[in-house]
Amino acid sequence: MTDRFVYLDHAATTPVRQSVVKAMEPYFTDKYGNASSPYSIGRESRAALDKSRDAIAEGLGVDSREIIFTAGATESIINSIIGAYLGNRHRGNHILTSSIEHPAVHAVLDFLKEKMDAETELVDVDSNGILKLDELESKLRDDTVLVSVMNVNNEVGSIQDIKAVVGMCEERGIMVHSDCVQSIGKMPLDLADLGVDLSCMSGHKFGGPKGIGVMYVRQGTHLEPICEGSQEFGFRAGTENVAGIVGMAVAFDEAVKGQAEHEVLHARYKQQLFEIIRDAEPAAEINGDLETCIPATLSVWLPGCSGEMLVLALDRANVAVSTGSACHTGAIDPSHVLTAMGMGRLEALGSIRISMGHTTSQEDIDRFGEVFAGVYEQVKVSAG
Amino acid sequence: MAIKEVASAEFETEVITESNTHPVVVDFWAPWCGPCRMISPIIEELDNEYDGKMVFTKVNTDENQDIASRYNVMSIPTLILFKGGEVKDTVIGVKSKAALKKMFDEHIGD
Fold first, then answer.
1. Is A132 exposed, middle or buried (0-12, 13-18, 19+ CB in 10 A)?
2. Is the ipTM of this complex over 0.85?
3. B61–chain A nearest CA distance, Å
4. At the fourth CATH level, which superfamily is domain B4-107?
5. Ranges of chain A with pLDDT below 70
6. Which of A82, A176, B74, B98 has the least CB density, counted as fewest CB within 10 Å?
């Protein structure tokens, strides 16, 4: 008998829900019509698309016309940040973002800086990964056109006060983009209430398929279409991925409905996970703060061990977690999030991220508890 | 021939002083680093090819953190070329043998 596979990397991606697979299946077989075709199977696809859009819009507390389907959050980020910059270029070229954004945001800003004359600046976070709002306020300028701050951080789970960011920017006429990829199913989310102009999410982070996502564009937002076409209200050309959209809508509905229950479970599991780790390594510390992080994500520093080595050793024990490092251009870097929080290179490289989702159960935590101490001991020994 | 491992205590003589005679390349690595294992055979080949013209050494960043932080090594692998006791070039990440040769050649014989 093989050991139970314990998947604790839901911040990377999630298993697709069975209900999602079932809902998508007809759109690969009988219901293959192009949603722009006028005949019956085309209209059928169009109806499925509209229904999915309405359901997602309702769940986010916004209007259906504000929901644009894309191939995922990275594409949404590219279209919304470049589009917002071009649409407001006459007002200025200054953009602010947090130092802990997803690399997708930092990459787009680097592109704008190098190719399109933008001036970009980072705003620091504190040791818990929370944006320094006073620093943000002091960096806002007359020519600032956009501020991009993620709602929930993907590596440590810290939650930002987006309403406060919007409050600062709104009175100055500055647009706010907030990446909400890690929020769906993890915390309540009402985009209209947050007041952001632009946002994004990815289907595969909450039990939907990969390759489908949402770009939220608040009505009245001045956005230059980057991928102009007849579909998606002119903001995203290309035949719609009907199966993916239907699947994402089903996943979204279940994620939102299960959110409150999962939040309670994850908080309990998180406590147990940290106790298991502390038993094996009494000097282990949580990166961030339990109070200001979502319960689903736990980033831990284990002194005297390499996160990479621990992840590989846990994999051999059939447990999947991730590291506090990133592999870019053939080199391993300490996580930019952990270093932005003031951690040193070795602390960041000695950290792991454990993230839970809709399939995480007590059995997973128990199995983690059975193997962790033994695996950690091996890694510690071999690290010298 | 295996590349010489240099520890903190020997760094001054093996790298800094030696670089007054020949350029010295230091490969900053760690045992758990996948990309480091990719670049390591390339360094061994270059060590053979540049025999007598350039010296190749390795520093384990887990065991010699002081040296890694002195040269601000954040990512690994990082290759640093020393000449005349000073840092002359830095390469981060896995690069092709041809790209490394092109860079190293610029530091030979001038």
1. middle
2. no
3. 9
4. Glutaredoxin (3.40.30.10)
5. 1-2, 328-329, 381-384
6. B98
